[in-house]
Structure formats: structure tokens, C-alpha cells
Specification:
The structure is a single chain. The chain has a five-stranded mixed sheet with strand order 6-5-4-8-9, covered by helices on one side. A hairpin with a 5-residue loop joins strand 8 and strand 9. The chain is globular, with a radius of gyration of 14 Å. About 25% of the residues lie in helices and about 25% in strands. About 5% of the residues have low confidence. The chain has four helices and nine strands. The protein has one domain: Glutaredoxin (3-Layer(aba) Sandwich), CATH 3.40.30. It is an alpha/beta fold.
């Protein structure tokens, strides 16, 4: 799988997902408030062709599996809020989405959430179980409606 390159830092599978709150002009989302659900945490950007390729299957999977306690949280790493909002509108994206732009950590340091997760390129997706533990990481676009992916998510 290929994606658009970004920052570099290793991630920790089977460890607690770093908590965060992202607030943009429209939403405020805190990861720990989603505890009890399986979270598909997707980092993406409007300028990234593989991200655009992947987005329809994320939307479809969310619609099919939300009754099973699965929530997609799509975090845009776009710098320009206008590009982000235009993309959401033009593509009728029906997901919980938020744009990060230098969010504050609990110690007051400004650090993008994507860098706290060790995101090296987008799209990059973390599967977080109901207890808040990172179970899997996907680098590059994924067809979220593949049988193997749906079965994996259903088993969590």
C-alpha cells in the first residue's frame, strides 16, 4: 500500500491509545469519550490521492457497522480550513471528522495529534478497541469493505 509521506515516529500496537481532544471551528472530539466503542482513527488530507481513494469505503463501512459499536474518526491534517470544508461538502462526507492544526497536549505543548500517534504518511489508520488499546495500524489506503477487514472489526 502506498500513501503520501508525512512525519515519522514508531507506533505502539497493543498499548493504550494516546488520549487527545481536537477542536476545530465545528467540532470538539475527545478520544476517551468514545471508550466502549471500536474507533477507526483515520489520518488523511484533501491533497492526498490515496486518502481520497479510501474515503468512500470508510463512509460505507461506517454506515454498515455503526450498529456494532464501530465509529470512524477521520482527522484531517490539512493546513487550509477552506480546502478541508470544501472537500467535505463536495464529497458529502458523512463521518465524524475534525481538522487538526497544532493541538495542545495536557502539558500545554502544541503538538499535532498525528505526530503523537507516530503517523509517517497519510492515509494512516489505527484500530482502537473498546478499552482504548491500539490493536492494528494500516499505512496507505484500505478497502474497508473487504471481507477480512469487516470480519476483523466484528471480532473486536
Amino acid at each position: 500500500m502506498s500513501g503520501c509521506y508525512g512525519r515519522s515516529k514508531p507506533s505502539s500496537i497493543n498499548t493504550r491509545a494516546p488520549d487527545f481532544t481536537i477542536q476545530d471551528s465545528e467540532h470538539s472530539v475527545t478520544l476517551s469519550q468514545l471508550r466502549g466503542k471500536i474507533v477507526v482513527l483515520n489520518f488523511w488530507a484533501t491533497w492526498c490521492p490515496p486518502c481520497i481513494e479510501e474515503m468512500p469505503s470508510l463512509v460505507q463501512m461506517q454506515k454498515k457497522m455503526q450498529d456494532k459499536g464501530i465509529t470512524v474518526l477521520a482527522v484531517s491534517v490539512d493546513d487550509d480550513p477552506n480546502d478541508y470544508h470544501k472537500f467535505l461538502k463536495d464529497h458529502s462526507i458523512d463521518l465524524l471528522t475534525v481538522r487538526e492544526s497544532g493541538q495542545r497536549t495536557p502539558t500545554g505543548v502544541i503538538a499535532p495529534v498525528s505526530s503523537r500517534y507516530g503517523t509517517i504518511k497519510v492515509p494512516e489508520t489505527y484500530i482502537i478497541d473498546r478499552g482504548g488499546v491500539i490493536r492494528r495500524k494500516f499505512i496507505g489506503p484500505v478497502d474497508w469493505n473487504q471481507t477480512e477487514v469487516v470480519e476483523y472489526l466484528s471480532r473486536l
